[in-house]
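User:
Care to share a sequence and structure tokens?

Assistant:
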Amino acid sequence: MHSLLANAHALRVNSTDAERRLWYYLRHRRLSGFRFRRQVPIGRYVVDFVCIRARLIVEIDGGQLTTYSGDYEFYAAQRALNDRRIADLRSRAAEASEAAAAEPAAAEAEAETEPQAEAPSPGSRPEPAPAPSDPKPGGDQMVVDVVAYCGGVGTASGLPLGWGTVAVDTRIFPFGTKMYIPGYGNGVAADTGSAIIGRIIDIWFPTCARARAWGRQTLTITVYW
């Protein structure tokens, strides 16, 4: 995983003119509000651009592939991987679509065999978020800016998306790093974001209203390396 992240970083640093031009129009949600990331590890590959919400991957090549003689082998190898990784990702997407199509039928069959749950009474509230617990002993204290996000269907690490998912700069917090965030609770470094650079983390909420209510806070978190 470390070598894959190093490769992704190298690709960001050595991005082609075409990639930089396209990134100008994709970054900061400039395309219809969709959040894109660049050079993201997915499985065994590094994709040029990805929008998790739209399940969209964009691959693009630039002129440096033919003009950078010193890096020709690097770019040629990366280009050769494109066809294989796109085919692999398409295969995975097809399998996921088949599984998603099978879920309603499975749920309907299960509903027929299980007793119906009692309908909630009028005015009942949805299940609240987990109550923040006290931090575990040990760990290192670190002051960071904490922002919030919502939505999405997956994470850059491949871990499930849910309460406790934290987007980080993996140069500081490697995937899997556990942490305690005051006012939120326990979290794990499992995602990334184009704007998450340095000592800033992005915590996930199930609704955008909660994410907006959180805003941006400077907090002392406890990190368990």
Observations:
- Residues 65-69, 117-127 have pLDDT under 50 and may be disordered.
- The first strand starts at residue 37 and ends at 42.
- The chain has two domains: 2-90, 140-224.
- Residues 2-90 form one domain.
